[in-house]
Amino acid sequence: MKTLVGIETKSANKIIDNLNDLLANFQIHYQNLRGLHWNIKGKNFFELHVKFEEYYTDSQLKIDEIAERILTLGGTPLHTFTDYLETSKIEVGKNITNDIEAVNLVVTGYKQLLEIERKLLIVSDEADDEGTNAMISDFVSEQEKTLWMLNAWLG
Predict the structure, then answer these.
(1) What is the pLDDT of residues 84-96, one digit of tens each?
(2) Residue 14 domain boundaries
(3) What is the CATH number of the domain that holds 14?
């Protein structure tokens, strides 16, 4: 049996599960970025306030893409904070105001997203799911560059 887009249902379900895992982790990452944007203090405030807004805006777009891909494959995207907290492996950052602590939280979040995305690349490749593979491949390229830049900032 195949999905609307021609992927074997069993394979699509595996991809949907992995995409929902990514979605939950991205939602926590997004919320961390919002909190950091609001609460950052110190000499790097202006630089990081703008940068965190850039990152959460990008994350918001990716979250929507992930949810729409799940729907395209015939699944239901996770959509409650309970689901996100139960599923996500990304640490929730609370009341972080320090620049280095904030950037380290973001770096850790991106590393965890990349780990999930690389697993998804394998699963989507095995299923011959070019749509998911292309989307995730683009995410990986962008996030690797972001990690490089954040690590350069950390020195």
Answers:
(1) 999 999 999 999 9
(2) 9-154
(3) 1.20.1260.10
